[in-house]
């Protein structure tokens, strides 16, 4: 069994070409990733493979239907759990038969699946969804629970071909471990779009999608990074070689010009001595100038070609390099108490506290704190308490006067109706226009972005604009609050965020299930919610 794609192209309705002539195959037993920057077409390619959107050009061959774990789970919020798992018709047939309606259509639809309800409940239980009802709509579930409904279909249906689009978004660390275990054990063909570097290290190959097309790298993500480093070194060496060639060509061009000038002058002197008339001199001079022009043109073309090669190589290096953004450090002295909780709890429903035990903790200036907990443990609620969005119902929470920046996975600090330039400019209305645009350009948001609405940006672009807005505001945050900041952004954007947060000398309160990100930014201690 295999998947074969031949000459696949896709064009948006507005005429923008997403990709052209993509060809690759995935063989039986392969577990591979599809990675690339936001906007390169990874999700679209999965939809083409699954048949969710029609193929415009080329062909997709697959022997079986694909089971899909989607990224945009909100579009399924109106479905019941049974509908999302595509067992609703069988369950209806079962109930009709049990009620005495033994029409052949129901018997044929149910087949041998008399225990279908038990199978579904068992699959849901395996993914930690014990209290979920089959008739319950997905809109009543948390983001993590919705993803786990689709993951339970892996257990229920035992598919031979699985397509996953960012499956670890919204998952807590317990659920991620369950998914990692399933990936290691399954014999299915698996194609995953993901920025989860821990997950990517479980796979046997990486397909990289870019504006240049699609390229395969054998091995897991760690091995992919090593191969990319070799590529970068080769590109940098090529740049050095081309720069040496250009210097040689420039010197040669200069020598040719000087030599022709000397020959021209010598020819004039000899002609005068031999008594050649003005008309003869003009003819010789014209011939010499044409010869000289040909030499200059030849060498000039060579220099221009080398300059073009050098710029092309520099562009490739820029694609590999990580944008460096510097957040100003807080001027608070270390160990100042920023947040103090005493017997803290919160009730969404009266007499039903969110946490089993009240919370007691301190966060001091200079500390980097990780807030851990499974889905539904109240991590975002605690962040809302600290920022003042909601008030405690039990106990006391003291927050010192401070400047804080809240960066969440949806980048809600951005106004979706503003353009990119308006968003940046509103963070510091006194900054001159040219300085704002200069800051945007340095944040890899070039002129082509300035008039776009913030709502149209990719996750990585929203992250860059959020950080850029902070830089423009010229206000150093005393506390940087990060709520699942690596969700919805590509790997390259994660590297930018990691570098920025790691170099920030201030207090951090982090919610994340990205263990690689946690390790790389550095954490002093954890607060676990239960």
UniProtKB/TrEMBL annotation:
Keywords: ATP-binding, Nucleotide-binding. Pfam families: ABC_tran (PF00005). PROSITE patterns: ABC_TRANSPORTER_1, ABC_TRANSPORTER_2. One of its GO terms (molecular function) is ATP binding. Residues 3-237, 339-529 form the ABC transporter domain. The keyword Iron does not apply. SUPFAM superfamilies: P-loop containing nucleoside triphosphate hydrolases. InterPro entries: AAA+_ATPase, ABC_transporter-like_ATP-bd, ABC_transporter-like_CS, ABCF_ATPase, P-loop_NTPase. The keyword ATP-binding applies. It comes from the Bacteria. Gene3D superfamilies: P-loop containing nucleotide triphosphate hydrolases. This is ABC transporter related protein. It comes from Bacteroides coprosuis DSM 18011.
